[in-house]
Amino acid sequence: MTDTKSPRLVTEGTWVFPLLVLAPLAVLGLLTDHSQPWLAISWGLFALSTLAVAAGWASVFRHGTRGTAAWSTCVLVHAVLAWQLISLVWQ
Fold this sequence. Notes:
By secondary structure, the chain is an all-alpha fold. The chain has three helices and no strands.
């Protein structure tokens, strides 16, 4: 008997969680003043998002990826992650 189940390929859904963490952080960073508690929370959320991106890459290496939508979302996540890192370092 053979297994007909398709392999778990990485889709754009893999990269949604890091974007959900970074998007409000980016918007609030543009609209508010950067106080000390805000910076501490920002670094924590940045670290959480970085761990989620690392988990996404582990899935890509393990299962592969499918389609251009997944790669487009991956590029978007990495662009926002780089922008947030630059923003946090300059604070």
